Structures are given as structure tokens and as C-alpha cells.
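Key result, reporting period 2: structure in, sequence out.
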């Protein structure tokens, strides 16, 4: 082959040849992500196998509601889908409609929560999962209504209720309407509990603001994932306010467990079996009460 012919070969053909050789030798580069905690590169396949936990430092990557429900559910598909609701712009906050559209496109969700009816270890449960990717999992009118609707359905069908919280608090773009959801969700949960319903609140990283100050703190049983930040105001705000350095690990799950704020800190790989045991105990208690 002449030199002129060699240099005339198109670049994309060379790239294709290089890719084919890598695949043949098994050296194809796999996708990876950087761990926010230890900065190590983690293969996405490995992260999937570890349930979103960094194999190097144990950092908990956030899970989408779909992934969370798949990890919990006994079945390939959920038992019931609720018709999703969509937020509007009740106080004409600038650019809020555009933000909603962007987040719907990014997450493929209508808002920051998914509610489903699933089976965990054979027991039918009403489950809500907040998604921190959607406007930081903030609670606006739709999130409040979805939680109230789920609690009402669970009470009507006599199902246990589990909510996984991951939130930056109330949604400022909806002003007072967002703050009203604190009272609304708290009232719905209390009504559910008064009828004998079991509410398990699972706090993930982070659970803050109006969410932590309302329904997320009302669990009959309240648990958290390891190292989850759980607070109303963050540690930086508190330090600036009081002018003092806070204790190590302040407002993290382990600190709150030690001081009686939580019932347990449960690793992600143990979450389904842990919840299954509690649900079975509750189910036995209900049967005993009927007898």
C-alpha cells in the first residue's frame, strides 16, 4: 500500500478498527463514576451490584424511586400504579414552569415522589419514595397531596405505610402553599395511625427542612440509611448562628441513633429483609388482635 493511500484512510475508520481490536482483546473501557466522598472511580456495573454503595468507602449514592422499588418488591412489577399529579405555579414564581419541565425531562417523573403498592416478603405495603433529583426532592403541593392520598388509601385498605424521604425541605417556588403541606401530611399520617395503621419512616441522605419537621418524623418506627444527613437546618447554618463548632458527625444517622432520635440504622443490602421482619411481626399482631 502506498503512503498516500495510508494517510487517506478516514479517521472514523481508524477509530472503528481500534474499537474492534479493544473489544476482541476484552479491553473495552467501561463506564465509571467518581465517588463524591473518596473520589475513587467506580464502575457503573460494580455500583449496580453493590446497590449503589461505593465499594471503597461505603458512600451511599442516591437511588431513583424505580431502583428503590425494584430492590424492595417481591415481584417484577408493582401491584398498583397511582395516577401521577403535576405541579402548577400557584404564586407565579419566575421561571418555575421551565424548571418543572426540565426536571420532568431529566427524571422522567411528574414530580418529586413516586407512590406504589408493592409486596415485601409477601406482605402488601403502600410505599412512597421521594426523588432528590427532582428539585432536591422538595415538598410542594403535589408531593403533599400524593403523600396524603397514599396514607388515605393505605388506611382504607388496612395496609402498612412506608415512606422513603430524601428532601431539601419545602419548595420555595410555591411559597405558603408548600409550607401548608407540612400540616397536611402530618394530619394525614396521624389520621392513618389513629386507625391502627403502621407507618415506617425511612430517612435517606439528605432529609431536611419541612419534610424532616413533618411526616418524616412521625413514624411508629423511624430508621435511616448509614451516614444520612437528618436535620431541619443544616450544620453550617447552625454553626454560623451559634458561633460554635458542632460535634463530629452531628445530625448524621449514627449520631441521632446514639441520642435516641432513630430506632435503627439499616444498611441498604439489609433493608428489604429488615422491613420484612417488622412487617411480619405487625401482621401477626393484627391477626392475634382479631382472634
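The corresponding designed sequence is given below.
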Amino acid at each position: 500500500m502506498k503512503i498516500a493511500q495510508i494517510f487517506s484512510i478516514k479517521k472514523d475508520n481508524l477509530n472503528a478498527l481500534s474499537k474492534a481490536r479493544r473489544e476482541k482483546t476484552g479491553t473495552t473501557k467501561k463506564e465509571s463514576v467518581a465517588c463524591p466522598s473518596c473520589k475513587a472511580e467506580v464502575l457503573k456495573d460494580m455500583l449496580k451490584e453493590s446497590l449503589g454503595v461505593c465499594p471503597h468507602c461505603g458512600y451511599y449514592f442516591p437511588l431513583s424511586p424505580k431502583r428503590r422499588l425494584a430492590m424492595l418488591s417481591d415481584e417484577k412489577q408493582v401491584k398498583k400504579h397511582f395516577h401521577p399529579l403535576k405541579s402548577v405555579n400557584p404564586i407565579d414564581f419566575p421561571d418555575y414552569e421551565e424548571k418543572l419541565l426540565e426536571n420532568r425531562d431529566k427524571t422522567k417523573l411528574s414530580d418529586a415522589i413516586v407512590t406504589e403498592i408493592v409486596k415485601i416478603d409477601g406482605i402488601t405495603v403502600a410505599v412512597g419514595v421521594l426523588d432528590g433529583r427532582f428539585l432536591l426532592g422538595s415538598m410542594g403541593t403535589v408531593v403533599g397531596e400524593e403523600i396524603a392520598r397514599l396514607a388515605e388509601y393505605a388506611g382504607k385498605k388496612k395496609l402498612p405505610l412506608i415512606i422513603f424521604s430524601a428532601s431539601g425541605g419545602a419548595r420555595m417556588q410555591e411559597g405558603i402553599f408548600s409550607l401548608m403541606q407540612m400540616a397536611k401530611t402530618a394530619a394525614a399520617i396521624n389520621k392513618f395511625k389513629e386507625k391502627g395503621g403502621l407507618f415506617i419512616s425511612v430517612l435517606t441522605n439528605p432529609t431536611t427542612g419541612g419534610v424532616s419537621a413533618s411526616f418524616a418524623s412521625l413514624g411508629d418506627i423511624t430508621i435511616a440509611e448509614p451516614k444520612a444527613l437528618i436535620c431541619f437546618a443544616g450544620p453550617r447554618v447552625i454553626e454560623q448562628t451559634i458561633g460554635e463548632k458542632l460535634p463530629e458527625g452531628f445530625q448524621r444517622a449514627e449520631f441521632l441513633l446514639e441520642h435516641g432520635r432513630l430506632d435503627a440504622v439499616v444498611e441498604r443490602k439489609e433493608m428489604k429483609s429488615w422491613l420484612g421482619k417488622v412487617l411480619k411481626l405487625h401482621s401477626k399482631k393484627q391477626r392475634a388482635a382479631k382472634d
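The mean pLDDT is 89. The beta strands are 32-34, 41-43, 80-81, 113-120, 123-130, 161-167, 199-207, 221-224, 264-265. This case is discussed further under Risks and Mitigation.
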